[in-house]
């Protein structure tokens, strides 16, 4: 592969991607365009623009993608109730295809022949960034410095930065206690003090949620309105996708909801321990299952649950832009056409519980399930034939085995 001439770099403004920016210019001789996405990570992004300008970036993109992130990526995922390995709500995984999409679009607009990212050679993100990029632009070049350079230790990295006039904050000279990735859906903390899965995570790792033990002693009741499987209102107030998740995050954080200490199986083969906080997403998932429970047919609901682990794995492994994910999405979206209504949620000391749900599209029939007189809605005698037909094969098996 020929050396790239112009590169679009996913740039956070932090030390690592600043070193990558300078390294691409010095070691690769590239013209570098930076792209910084506001996905709701909660950081001021204008310093990243200023730093990229100071370091000589050829062009600088800083974009607010919060609405697109929630509307076009989180919402489709939550319609599927996607959970990886039974617990993880895929907060980091679902952000990567959007970043890659914009990297490719900016590369086209700028006439760049390559993109670059700061993911390491041990993690999942390198796979996610690059699978998405190749799906959208098959001939794009990808530069992954962590796989290419010889800066294999933190000490060597700092030395190189100082040699090449990259400003190194004083607190970066030592080992960081852990690394953090954040967006509007979650925070992810890994490494250093968290690497031993036998040791509890220190309290200071948690950034968005209070300790459930310190959460309010009084439950908070909220109502979430759904339309076609997506949350659209909170306590009767219509909200945009990003506004909705922001408000749910505030509620969940206040009540200590959405903490997860997980050892997961990475796509690249190793296991890793991460501390995740997904306060709003945890409420969202519980509420969505609540409205589905009355609006979704049993067969459709059970099929969704069978397909969900496969769908979640596709997102985790980086296949958002794959035909199989899109096929599954079409099925999932079809199932949500009548998932409309309101869910009442109780938030209390780390838990988000559905305590009420109602809908014009409800399949729940009180006339059929009542213990009182049902006025002929259900003939209990019908159950006898139903049971005997379903028991026939079991009876035949039992008779054969008794011979």
TrEMBL record:
InterPro entries, alphabetized: Arginosuc_syn_C, Arginosuc_syn_N, Arginosuc_synth, Arginosuc_synth_CS, Arginosuc_synth_type_1_subfam, AS_cat/multimer_dom_body, Rossmann-like_a/b/a_fold
Binding site for L-citrulline: 88, 93, 124, 128, 179, 188, 264, 276
Binding site for ATP: 10-18, 37, 118
Metabolic or biological pathway, per its Swiss-Prot or TrEMBL entry: Amino-acid biosynthesis; L-arginine biosynthesis; L-arginine from L-ornithine and carbamoyl phosphate: step 2/3
DNA-binding in keyword set: no
Pfam families documented for this protein: Arginosuc_syn_C, Arginosuc_synth
Known catalytic reactions: L-citrulline + L-aspartate + ATP = 2-(N(omega)-L-arginino)succinate + AMP + diphosphate + H(+)
Arginosuccinate synthase-like N-terminal domain segment(s): 6-166
Annotated EC: 6.3.4.5
CDD domains: ASS (cd01999)
Arginosuccinate synthase C-terminal domain span: 178-395
Repeat found in the keyword field: no
Enzyme class per UniProt: ligase
Keywords associated with the record: Amino-acid biosynthesis, Arginine biosynthesis, ATP-binding, Cytoplasm, Ligase, Nucleotide-binding
Positions contributing to L-aspartate binding: 120, 124-125
Localization (cell): Cytoplasm
Entry similarity comment: Belongs to the argininosuccinate synthase family. Type 1 subfamily.
Subunit structure: Homotetramer.
Protein name: Argininosuccinate synthase
UniProt organism field: Paralimibaculum aggregatum
